[in-house]
């Protein structure tokens, strides 16, 4: 069975197709926003876990899920979805290992996106 790529190339091509001929400026803008926003959402997850704020935790996980899907980071999206669903259904007990998985997947996504769009 083939391993799921860190970034789905079709999602990247779909983003490129939204603004063809711009030398990847639109894609670069989306990636920069994602790379700036996601660490803030991860901080939200950690802080809300520390104070048992389920609603805030679920919102942050939902946000990561959506932005990851937009960029084709499907494994990261899947972990964010698990965090969101688990927090809504079962609360925040035993969720720390899954949060660790999310951080690991995000680190992989960061590396792949930086390879995809090297700094100017």
Task: Describe the structure concisely.
The protein has 120 residues and is mainly α. It has five helices and no strands.
Overview of the molecule:
- The protein is mainly alpha-helical and 120 residues long.
- The chain has a single domain (9-13, 20-116), classed as Four Helix Bundle (Hemerythrin (Met), subunit A) (Up-down Bundle).
- It has helices spanning 9-18, 25-50, 54-71, 74-90, 96-116.
- The longest helix is centred in the N-terminal third of the chain and has 26 residues, at 25-50.
- The N and C termini lie far apart (37 Å).
Distance between the termini: 37 Å
Secondary structural class: mainly alpha
Low-confidence stretches: none
The value of Rg in angstroms is: 15 Å
Total strands: the figure is: 0
Biggest sheet layout: none
Total tally of structural domains: 1
Q: What would the average pLDDT be, to the nearest integer? A: 93
Work out the strand percent.
Answer: under 5%
Shape: elongated
CATH-defined topology: Four Helix Bundle (Hemerythrin (Met), subunit A)
Order of helices and strands: HHHHH
Architecture (CATH level 2) name = Up-down Bundle
What is the name of the CATH class? Answer: Mainly Alpha
Query: How much helix, percentage-wise, in residues?
Result: over 70%
Number of helices: 5
In CATH, what is the homologous superfamily? HPT domain
What's the arrangement of secondary structure elements?
Blueprint: H1 9-18, H2 25-50, H3 54-71, H4 74-90, H5 96-116
């Amino acid at each position: 069975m083939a391993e799921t790529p860190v970034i789905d190339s079709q999602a990247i091509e779909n983003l490129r197709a939204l603004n063809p001929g711009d030398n990847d400026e639109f894609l670069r803008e989306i990636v920069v926003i994602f790379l700036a926003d996601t660490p803030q959402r991860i901080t939200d997850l950690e802080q809300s876990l520390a104070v048992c704020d389920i609603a805030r935790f679920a919102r942050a996980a939902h946000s990561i899920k959506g932005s990851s899907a937009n960029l084709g980071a499907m494994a990261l999206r899947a972990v964010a979805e698990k965090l969101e669903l688990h927090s809504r259904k079962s609360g925040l007990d035993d969720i720390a290992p899954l949060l660790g998985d999310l951080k690991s997947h995000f680190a992989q996504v960061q590396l792949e996106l930086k390879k995809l769009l090297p700094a100017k």
